[in-house]
Design a protein that fits this description.
Number of helices: 0
Shape: globular
Helix content: under 10%
Order of helices and strands: EEEEEEEEEEE
Radius of gyration: 13 Å
Length: 113
Amino acid sequence: QVRLVESGGGLVQPGGSLRLSCAASGRFFSIKTMAWHRQAPGKEREQVALITSAGGTNYADSVKGRFTISRDNAKNTVYLQMNSLKPEDTAVYYCRDLQSNDWGQGTQVTVSS
C-alpha cells in the first residue's frame, strides 16, 4: 500500500557512478524490508540488493563490492549507490517493499560509452 518513487537513473559511462533513490510515502518506513531489483529487456527481473529494518544487507553476486544499499529513515528513502558501473548493469531498476509487495515505477540506468 506504500507509494514508492524511484529517481536518479540516467546515462553514465563505464566505470562511472550513479545513486538511485526510492522515496516512500508511508509513516512506517523504518520497519520495512526494502529491496532493489532490475530488469533488462527479454530477461527476468532480478533482485540486486536488500536492506532490512535493522540495516542488514544482501547483494547479488554480480554487484557485490560495487553497489551499496542504504536507508535514511528520517527521509523515508532507500538508496542504491552504484560504482564501477558496467554495460551489463544497464536495466530498469525498481524499488520494492517486500511486506506489501509494492513496486515503484522504475528508473532507467544505461551504462554506455
